[in-house]
Amino acid sequence: MQSEIAETIAKALQVKLSSRDRQVVAAKPTQNSEAYDAYLRGLAIWNSLDVGPKALQQMEEFYGRAVQLDPTFALAWSHLSVIQTLTYAEVDPAAERLGKAKLASDTALRLQPGLGEAHFALGLYRYRALRHYDGALQAFEEAIEHGVQKSLSIEFSAYVKRRQGKWDEALALHEQSQTLDPRNAVLFSEQAVTYAALRRFPEARRMIDRALEIMPNDALLLAQKAVSFVQEGDFEGAERMLQRVPVDPQQLDLVGTRIALWMCMRRFDEVIRMLEAALAVPDSLPKHVVAFYRARLGSVRILVNDPEGAARELKLAREEFEALRAASDTGEGFLQHLIVVDALLGEKARVDAHAAKMQDDIARDAFEGPALEQAIAVARTKLGETDAAIEIIRRLLSKPAGAALTTALLRADPIWDPLRNDPRFQQLAQSKP
Fold first, then answer.
1. Chain CA centroid to CA 422, Å
2. Per-residue pLDDT tens over the stretch 72-104
3. Domain coordinates of the chain in residue numbers?
4. Alpha carbon distance 327, 306 (integer Å)
5. pLDDT tens digits, 51-64
6. Long-range pairs for 352-355 at CB < 8 Å and ≥24 separation?
7. Long-range CB contact pairs, 156-160, < 8 A, 24+
8. Which residues contact 416 (CB under 8 A, 6 or more apart)?
9. 45 and 186 Cβ atoms separated by less than 8 Å
10. CA 203, 209, 210 angle in degrees (round to 5)?
11. Cβ 125 vs Cβ 101: under 8 Å
12. Taking the mean position of all CA atoms in its chain, how far away is CA 201?
């Protein structure tokens, strides 16, 4: 029925389908209706903005059931590989998870070598798991060549270009993918991410508003807009956005946005209450989320003159991050948070060792690398190494970044309080954004 509808729409729009397009449209991905139902349930979650731990787990279950019911269902294998890769990159960087992602990708390509989604899954595996950016772009090109729905591969090519620091190319690819899929809110949200990385915040908010026209009142979009206000120092605007967003401890982005706002507004008691409530049921949260919340709780306890409570939380957070690193296939994962924890505990030797290990990732990733540099700057600040911290801050203010440091944040965020009496810092904080 879907094939017939696609053919009818193509004729009505006077679209001329190539022979390959006709084959893809006419192909039945599976003969098993239950497998197809499970696949569609996973796809419904994928088409939302939610790629949090719970959503990833649900998609893995749906796609896993689809391939269990039909082991020849190449399309479902492709999507299962995508979810395994994202889970590896965002939640569970273990060798076993990486192997599952590769197995699903290989299976999809073996079953249907001409399937665009299978080439997309390979591209994502190279991009997020291996960080082999040129290889990822090559696979996405193959996906575009073989696929009817090309917008996804074009869009993810934009994400790779961001990592390579090719910002204009990324923006052009965003616009190209939107032309092909103008009702996909994620595409506008991600272009907003790129604009925000370039500190073009009004343009970022225009993109978020376009996404909100498609998905009104979406919590993640509202939080994304709130972040842009925080980065510009408009804390009232950010608070107006967050009044429409529920507090969900499972959603690290939603909690993190509130923490960033309340820290800048110096509402430390509210941050503590929110984190304590989240940590009251730690077994319900992913381990990396628990460690992040505990580390933030420890850092805020320092600001409210609770050194004993701070040390307790920070030492527990360090144990949790070290355990995650030990189980991680990436080896040096979680250093971005661990280096700050160790600095707050006064562990200079450990901070120096962490900073040295982070340099390769900083050099290879123009999008996420600056966040690692900022973590080093925070650590140097907490250790009283003012010269080193200010030099890093100076560099960061001139760089695009996935979480761009701004002069408004320098002025407001208490994390930089130890630097405030330094004339060099004062000059940077008052400089043009």
1. 34
2. 999 999 999 999 999 999 888 888 999 999 999
3. 1-148, 328-433
4. 32
5. 888 899 999 999 99
6. 354/379, 355/379
7. 156/120, 156/123, 156/124, 156/127, 158/190, 158/194, 159/127, 159/190, 159/367, 160/127, 160/133, 160/136
8. 381, 410, 425, 429
9. no
10. 95
11. yes
12. 18
pLDDT of 329 higher than 80? no
Nearest Cα to Cα of residue 409 among 260, 223, 295: 260
Task: Enter the DSSP assignment of 171.
Answer: H
Please say whether the dihedral angle defined by the alpha carbons of residues 360, 378, 341 and 98, taken in this order, is positive or negative. negative
244/252 Cα distance (integer angstroms): 17
> In whole angstroms, what is the distance from residue 219 CA to residue 217 CA?
6
Mean pLDDT of 300-306: 97
Residue at 14: amino acid letter: Q
Q: For residues 105 and 59, what is the distance between their CA atoms, to the nearest angstrom?
A: 16
Angle between helix 335-344 and helix 287-303 axes, rounded to 10 deg? 30
The DSSP element (H or E) to which 432 belongs, if any, is none
**Helix-helix angle 95-111:74-90, to 10 degrees:** 160
**Measured between alpha carbons, how far is 357 from 146 in angstroms, rounded to an integer?**
40
Integer Cα distance of 425 and 421 in angstroms: 8
Domain spanning 1-148, CATH architecture: Alpha Horseshoe (1.25)
